[in-house]
Amino acid sequence: MRRRCYLDANATLPAADEVAARVAEVLRAGLGNASSTHAEGRRARALIEEARAEVATLLGAAPDEIVFTSGGTEANAAGLWGLLAAEGALAGRTLIVSAVEHPAVRAMADALRRHGVVVATAPVLASGVLDLDALAALLAGRRGATLAVQLANSETGVLQPVSDIGALAAGAGASWHCDAVQAAGKMPLEADAWGVATLAVAGHKFGAPAGVGALVVRSMRFAPLIPGTQEQHRRGGTENLPGIVGMGVAAHLARERLDEWHRACVVRDRFESEVRSRIPGAVVYGASAQRLPNTSCLGFPDGPPGGVLVAALDLEGYAVSTGPACSSGVERSSPTVEAMGFGQSAGERTLRVSFGLGTVEEDVLGLVAVLERVLLRSKEGRP
Hints:
alpha/beta
């Protein structure tokens, strides 16, 4: 039987042995609460601060700007809440989100709307890149607005022009929250240079355990989503010591391996070339834009729904997805593909393939062959 091939790295990047070993070591050590003043507590605090420095270096931020969270969803929610609630009442405040934001950001925007926040959507071009002229028009006359734009799309891998967005936000007097969850560990991040007020990441996207994330807080005015004394009063709750230590190790390894991701780009390009040449009508969404090196979003206009393809490929030994893992098991159209102007039917027939550093051409060529067979069976009405 053929070995299984994991091609869903954008959902979770498996932890390296060094991360797992360090987490287990911390769990066995029986250290205290990092807020305690005894020796065990002080040792726990020292480990957290070591990890904070590693994460800060990966994100291009200062250690005292790092706030540890339970993951990317909380980091995004805390970033938006922190900026919008900093001035007091939420009613009447303005939040501008891009049309291709992650479901976690869209869900928080909906929650804030119920609190009276005015939410506007900035459109993207067919490439998936933000329409900067439209964004400038939305920002005009909305001084004090909060802007939420992701760095890298989790479905297409399309990268947004962060320097231009930062300049527009600064010129309009807007605070900018950046969801960098999908980009962390795959490309250099420069939180301070981009002018963000807050920036969110999730540890499991770059090899840390699930259940730990971080929020860069550069804004002087910030209201905690979870009140408490921990994390410099910016996020209450006892810190997840093993997870944070694991995130620190993963951040260190990710920084050392950033240059290796160019290999994923070579594999991705070969994969997409084979798909286009062997499967008539196949589309690669976002191919004309700058993208993460490991992400392919494919469309098959004459094929079955994406969920059907995922199930069929799983039976053949390939782990892929239709989009964000938080939407798995839900038959729905891709809001990203729809926002790019390709319509609901196209959005229902997408497939996301995301490679890891261990993915080789043999893996993706095997996937193309299986995908070709699956689509042919579907066209002929065979299971």
